[in-house]
Amino acid sequence: MVNSTFSLRDNEHFPSLRGITVDNMFDHNTLEYYSEQGHEGFLRPTKHWCLLTEIVEEREWIRPMYTVKDKAGGQFLVAFHHDYDGTPGFRVSETFGMPANRRLPESLASNAKPGNVMAFMYAQNHMFADGQQGIRVEDLDQVKVRVYSLL
Hints:
Oligomer: single chain
Distance between the termini: 32 Å
Largest sheet: 7 strands, mixed
Structural class: mainly beta
Number of strands: 9
Radius of gyration: 16 Å
CATH architecture of the domain at 17-21 and 47-146: Beta Barrel
Strand order of the largest sheet: 7-8-5-4-3-6-9
Shape: globular
Number of helices: 2
Helix content: under 10%
């Protein structure tokens, strides 16, 4: 029988940034989260995890970017690196006027405000070229933004 109860304090399924794997680094920790599926050589998650963060601020740049904090209080960068095909329902950031292919869908952008929660399924710790650590988001389907606080 599967235990259907869970707790947001569970660090295995709701880790902080320090508790998740680093992308493009394959070590013992990575093997706890992924396994090779089939003969293609692709790694797939072997369990579910969700990084819950609170939005601290929207950051000005050529892509949608935010400073967020996790349940351990650590603040870090979230940068959206996705492509967009022009489907209605997307909007330009009112402040920064981003190119169309870098906009967030209205379902994310409308609630991506300081104090709200941004959740990332299967997030990986990423080291950006400028030395900042955080989350690089390529798959928008693995991100949800909700109007409530982590407190």
